[in-house]
Design goal:
With 202 residues, this protein is of the alpha+beta class. It has four helices and seven strands. It folds into three domains: 1-50, no CATH class; 55-71 and 143-202, no CATH class; 80-135, no CATH class.
């Protein structure tokens, strides 16, 4: 795994949005990378330079994106009525295994052990009564969620200085309710040059 250096700092590249990175990657994997960057450079070093201002008029750039995400496939699960029937089948199997002369139609009143009996709360479902609780929990927690990203940058300079200042904001609704993610960041690169010969000391 490469060690990533952003402007000579040990930062992960994912922390620097693409809009604030120059397309300049240099991979080094040799003895010199280990001698300069230490043991973490043994597998190679990726040097990344962030954007800097250039001479000329001030430039303002803004870009944004908007998207929607959703669950592509849900798990096929039983509803409450199907689960009630499955539970009854399980109790019937246990009952008939130990009471071969019994029948699946035998009521709970003649089934002597607890695990022979169908739970009372399942009987309305087995009878097909309408209006009972039948929640699809995947529908209850999943949703179509939005993704918003905004980036603003200002750059410019002259012979003596240049700057690049950028700000970004992203908001992502989670497809699971109450799992939203929000992030805001600001970054600045400012370079100033001056002539030491012109400095006057008393």
């Amino acid at each position: 795994m490469y060690n990533e250096l952003v402007d000579s700092l040990n930062l992960h590249i994912d922390k620097i949005p693409a809009q604030r990175r120059d397309i300049f990657l240099m991979s080094r994997k040799d003895a010199s990378s280990a001698s300069i960057y230490g043991p973490r450079g043994g597998n190679g070093v990726v040097l990344i330079s962030t954007k800097k201002g250039k001479q000329g008029e001030m430039r303002v750039n803004f870009n944004s994106s908007y998207g929607i995400q959703s669950v592509s496939k849900k798990i096929d699960m039983m509803n409450a009525y199907e689960y009630a029937q499955l539970s009854k089948d399980g109790h019937d199997v246990a009952y008939l295994f130990e009471v071969p002369t019994g029948s699946t139609d035998d009521p709970n009143s003649i089934r002597t052990k607890v695990y022979y009996k169908t739970p009372e709360e399942l009987l309305p479902y087995l009878n097909g009564e309408s209006g009972l609780t039948n929640t699809d929990w995947q529908d209850a927690i999943f949703r179509s969620a939005t993704i918003e990203r905004y980036n603003l940058s200002v750059s410019g300079g002259d012979e003596k200085w240049n700057c690049f200042v950028s700000a970004n904001h992203s908001f992502q609704e989670g497809i699971v309710i109450n799992s939203d993610y929000r992030k805001t960041g600001v970054r600045a690169n400012i370079d100033i040059s001056f002539n030491l010969d012109k400095l006057i000391f008393p």
